[in-house]
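Page 47, continued from p. 46.
Same chain as before, 294 aa.
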Amino acid sequence: MVPRPRLLDELRSGRGHALTLVCAPAGYGKTTLVSQWMAADANSSDFAWVALENGDADPVRFWTYVVAALSEIAPLAGRRSLAALSRRPEQLRTDALPLLIGELEQGDRNLVLVLEDYHLAEGTAVAESVAYFIDRRPSRLQVVLATRSDPQLPLGRWRANGQLAEIRAGQLCFADQEVADFFGHSGIETAMAALDRLPDPGILPALAASLQGKFLMPTRRSAAVVQAHSEREVVVLRLLGTGLSQREIAAQLYVSHNTVKTQVRMAYRKLGAGTRAQAVRHARDLGVLGTTAP
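Result:
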């Protein structure tokens, strides 16, 4: 994985801002970058990650997923707000969200809420509720949106007030030194293998192929470079290998279905897998699963 300290510092600088926006087309490495940040700052901040999909534009579904994710890093989250959300969804901004904000104010550890693929879930109702929440969020909570297009949020107001931290496509492009570090530290063969595993490799594969074709004879891409997996991801991978559905895994681990979906997607990305069978096979081949039962 390419170290990107300059961009990690940009993400960290978003603390205290209304919103941290990571906006670029597909393939620019948005998710990879935020994943690196989560791994680097795990000791200083707690991260709640919501992987959004088509169909999540319903405000009740959207906020149910958000509350479930936040409850894993802020124990009081959802104590009253989740019931209010299901009982009076039409009063989201006057009932459930104020309760959630109050629940998140209890505690002093830094919290980060990551909304991945926000563009898939945004609609007018969701956008209005997200803007309300961001404007009133506790100071210890940093909200990060990873999206392919600008959200329907008051970006101009936040930008004018110095409350918007932004990482755009131009910043996500690799600097010359980052490209040199990637190939220089890894060696071309290992680097080519790593590219097979990257979820958002951007322009690197074309550059690697060009370099290999110019300076080297064709070689097999054999070595696998894989990010470290969290303990929970390993458990989920083991349960995937037993044939359980994601909903069944969520029930067994006492977490939300969306949490398991997020962990599965993260594990797939780290393993360079597109299916359950590939993920389990790669994990076993690489020794990720070990020898013990979940």
